[in-house]
Amino acid sequence: MSVKEYILDTIKKRPMIIDGAMGTQLQDRADRISDAQWEGNEGCNELLNVTAADILEEVYSGYLTAGADLITTNTFGSFDWVLDEYQIGHRAYELTKAGAQIVKKMCDKFSTPEHPRLVLGSIGPGTKLPSLGHMHYDQMLSGYTECALALIDGGTDVFLLETCQDPLQIKAALHACQAANIEREAELPIMISVTIELAGTMLIGTDAQTIAAILEPFDILSLGFNCGTGPEQYGKHIKALAEVWGKPISVHANAGLPQNRGGYSYYPMGPDEFATQQENFMKYDGVSFLGGCCGTTPQHIRALVDKVSSITPKVATGSQEACIASLFSTVALKQNPAPLLIGERSNATGSKAFKELILAEDYEGTLSVAQQQVRAGAHLIDVNVGFAGREESKDMLNVIALYAQKIALPLMPDSTQISGLEIALKLIGGKCILNSVNLEDGEERFDIICQLAKKYGASLVLLTIDEVGMAKTAKSKFEIAERMYKRATELHGLRPEDLVFDLLTFTLGSGDEEYWTAGIEVIDAIRELMTTYPRVGTTLGLSNISFGLDKDARPYLNSMFLHHCIQAGLSTVIINVKHIIPLNKISDEQQEICNNLIFNKKPKGEALFDFIEHFSDVEATNSEEEDAAYDALNEEEKIAKLLMDGDKERMIPLVEAARHNIKPEVIVNEILIGAMKVVGELFGSGQMQLPFVLQSAETMKKNCRPFKPLFTKG
Ligand code: THG
Prior knowledge:
alpha/beta; eight-stranded parallel β-sheet; 29 helices; binds (6S)-5,6,7,8-tetrahydrofolate
């Protein structure tokens, strides 16, 4: 039976117990550690693995006697970049291996056939946060790999990435453990434990649900929490995690919330209360590993063993819909109502303004392009820094590093170069989606990008292009998508939920006969793909459909086309969020003209000429017609209309004036709330997109403010 099988088998019957603190145990024995043993580096606990093994053995002996199953190695900071703070980075391998060997020896001593004890190889976060640019992923990976190899060589059974502060640090450590497993032909399971601070998130800002979304694609034994606060604070985070995480959960908390006493941390919770608090966590699905962190002693672990050993852990049942995530939040890939809006503006090929910022290396300036899209209601930001005549690595590095830190939305790195995608993946702590892969250059390149998505736990956009070329008919779009689907899921183990197909949209604006049915082909292909493979997603670059047409006319065709694609099952769309028009603002006649073009309803491609003619001065006609229609409304109708349009500027003075004729309660409770209801219905039926809803809500908020004094007494 493998270690993993033994563990999974054991936690079906009882929770497994992780030992308690090492640091505070060493502090209690500080007077017995000589200057010679510290070698002039007092505080570098890893040195004790070679200079004071007897003291460590004594601590381990206490935990083993108390009944712990998993004994943690004294290797929390045992990698070059932390040890270098003591100028001994070159001793990382030696100190780590020795640390594992001590635990191995003690576990062997206490193991019986009925109760094996396991070596838990501790890998801490180090002292740097890669998401803040303190250190690059590559350097972390290299230090962690040396550590992971030494842990295996010293006899470790299970890796424990503990006290994690930053998801990007977790990915580097995880990849290091995987690389070490491969190099040693070993299969050590990996446990991950993050620290949630008093504020309710990891140090970098990631909450329990988001870390679960980021780590969901990885093959790990468990996810859980340690350190930071005391067990009292962890209940709500464990509850949140248990709802979304479908694998075992671990908790090894401190002995209470640390207090500062004369510059030292003091942990106030005694063994009984500690054990009672931890026992309480067993009511949550999946909680299967319990233990202690800072301030806990063999007495705490003994009390814990006594309290929980006869309890059967509940099976993990958590799940969450497929999502992508930034460091700070998750976004469901399937929005309800659809679609997920992907902001297109941070694109050096598609935006002159963005390109100029890149050329000037004004990276801070590129941040505002993304922020505008966040405000406009995008769910996800496409980032493409590449354009002809400029090498993109440096730009990708700088832009993604900034976006990953400062933009609260997930990212979609967009590059034609594998190296560009990889640069982005090494900077993004969240769960991103790669744009994109195709079969134009054959399967080898396709495979490399799928492997990247798999390795980093990213979702993937797949374009229907094969060795022959771009798919133009619904049939070939579907066939290429199906071929890619099979290869990505069967060969690379990607989940259908993480695949988003772009069925390629060509313009209806060229008049070229070959493209008269370009709209129909996409719509039909979306419908067939989403019916056959309902778990996948679909996307398209919306503005492609109207390329070459008048800029004021394009939003009408785009919006109408988007509507039909959503009806057919489209789940995401790459757009300028500001440029879509809700259907209730497109007249029946305009809708018909657009539909004739999209569905090729007129002979000889005449629908295009109708479209061009009708929309030739659309802005002017529209505003005249709109003005006349608006003027014909009564005061109440005007207020409702402006709210639905999200028109703050015109609405505030109107409401101010109306207050004298209409009771404020009526304005709010009947007119405004009534109009918001209509907005809600339009949103629910897919006729109004989220940004417009937000705009209306914002207008509602602004207009309720002047009433405040009327409602509050005094
Ligand atoms: N599918 C996938 N990815 C894509 C596309 C796609 N990425 C790039 C592109 N298509 C989507 N992004 C844009 C970005 C900008 C514009 C269109 C699509 C755009 N730009 C203005 C124009 O060309 O008129 C430029 C205006 C300006 O300079 O500001 O419309 O299809 N998977």
